[in-house]
Specification:
mainly alpha
Amino acid sequence: MTNVLVVNPVQLPSVSTFSAPMLTALTSALGIDRSVLASDNQIQNAWQNLPQLLSNIPPHLRTEGIMRMCVAVATGLFDSAINYAWNAAIVELRDKVRRFGIHIIPQIIDKDFDEKKLLDMQDAELLNLCLKLNLISETGYFMLDQCRDIRNNFSAAHPVIGNIDEYEFISFLNRCSRHALSDEQNMAGVDIKEFMTALNAAGFSPEQMQIWCDRIAQTFNAQRDAIFGMLHGIYCDPSKDEHCRVTAISVCNHFASSFSPNSISLLINQHQKYQAKGEQERFKASQAFFENLKLIGLLSETERHALISTACKNLMTIHKGINNFYNEGPFAERVAKLAEGHRIPETVRREFVETVVTCSVGNQYGTANVADIYYTQMIKGFSPREIQAMFELLSSNTVLSRRVNSYARCRAKFKGVVHSLQLSSIPTSSKSIYDSWL
């Protein structure tokens, strides 16, 4: 047999015998029309619905504020009643955040957070935080955010723009009790606290990675965006263990191709914040984050110029050094990764083309075989402007032109480079020189 939990409704005293005469006598004594307060029938309707709604609130959450709410209802002050109910809801949401763990939240929102900041939060900010932490559901957030608007415009907390009746109050209290004044656990979404514990413990096994990625994929958009922001912050945090950083970017890599506009906006904002605050270590790590996820196209042209130019200079230095045939591979791979799938900024186009083609042609002794695959990949992806720049290098005083003109091997290699170009990408201005090489 299944045990059914029966909740006995809260027993409230009758108010009809003292409330109605008292309100009539009070308004009469002050010379105010009785209609400025809720009618006797409205008070009675609200009072009859209160016991069941109060029973839905756990006993330990039926605080002094809830008692004051009841008194306000008994006297027809629904505007005061919703203010007391809202204050009780906000107090409980703050306690939910405390129980979640204030020390964990900075890693999630990527900024300092403590008790004072919790108390200073606007109600809207608190609701957003609770949504990100999965302390309330998307439905709960929607309902409570509407309650926030009602409280701000129709309660005794501020000058009101209108009056509410008993049914609107009952609906307001029902939303607060269901979504804030409740011990109910939100089963949807990702348990951020559990996720952080697993992330900090050790690197994810393939099975763990799959489980957590599935959970993130199934959660709601607001929490998913918050998770990606949190993982970006962890990756950029120099104090984090390497296994945490590796796991963080591995999870992000699983979703990088499907980041929402909100996720991208959040990541870019965090990236720019590091730069604005002069946090160079975090800023460099953030650049590596975008680079590893093949998302450097999201960065500004100035940043991409700097990244590509630095990578090209490093590659050319290695190419001209001793044992270049053995050392070029990783440097060529870096340039290829920065160029993959993104337009090269015009300001660094010539340097990029000159570096790639010069290293691909090599010197009189040969080309670095381990790097040649990356050179071929980049050259095949040359745009018409980049192909034009490549041919212009031959008529300039460059390392490339000197090698092609001086060494038969380099000339033959350059001819191979020309053969690898996409015919459809050859600009009209370069067609004659292209044909001459063929």
